[in-house]
Amino acid sequence: MPRNNFILRRPFPYVYRRYAFLLILINFLIFGLRFVYPNLAEYVHYYGAMNPILVEHYHMYWQFITYMFVHQNVRHIFFNMLALLVFGMGFEKAVGSREFLLFYLICGTLSGFLSFLVYRFTGQERVFLLGASGAVYAVLFAYAVFFPRSVILIWGIIPVPAPVLVGKSVPWKRIKCCSYDSFVRLFCSLALFCA
Predict the structure, then answer these.
(1) Bridge partners of 129?
(2) Host H or E run for residue 54
(3) Can you give the pTM of this predicted structure?
(4) Three-state SS for 154?
(5) DSSP-derived 3-state class of residue 108
(6) How far is CA 51 from each of CA 67, 115, 178, rounded to the nearest angstrom?
(7) Among 144, 146, 152, 147, residue whose Cα is nearest residue 189
(8) What 3-state class would DSSP assign to 61?
(9) DSSP code at position 177
(10) Cα(91)–Cα(135) distance, integer angstroms
(11) How far apart are alpha carbons 160 and 171 in whole angstroms?
(12) Which of 67, 136, 161, 182 would bridge 174 by S-S if both were Cys, CB 3.0 to 4.6 A apart?
């Protein structure tokens, strides 16, 4: 029987190199720049966060990737990176570091692109999309699929199954915020997961 040597069909060899931890470190380093170099923070925010006008008219296509590494405040980065630490490490161990990094970057990039389309066609062109929420939600959903019997301890004492935690907390967290931007991010994450 002939072997299929098509490059997209070949899996990566399994390696575990803690890329989730590396992503967390990179995010905190970029966030820390605002305190060390305050003038650089404005530059990073303007050129790093995704803005539909800048992407469309000034061809800043790198913003589909860089927006994932720019965060608004301490609370924003803390909860994104906490979710990446708790769920990302387990998911990375299950699929391997290369697949995890590829999944994270593709989902984050596609989430940015879908957000761009939604913002563009709803007239919300003056917003700046920032944060790793799209990629982190994709990791959360993937964790729930890969580990349906996993139990997460909330505050170290309340056991909650991972699919229930992901299924209940993600939508309610976004609906509770009642912001248009939150709904767009959640919609894009759910659309990526369903695809």
Answers:
(1) 50
(2) helix 52-58
(3) 0.83
(4) strand
(5) helix
(6) 9, 10, 21
(7) 144
(8) coil
(9) H
(10) 13
(11) 16
(12) 182
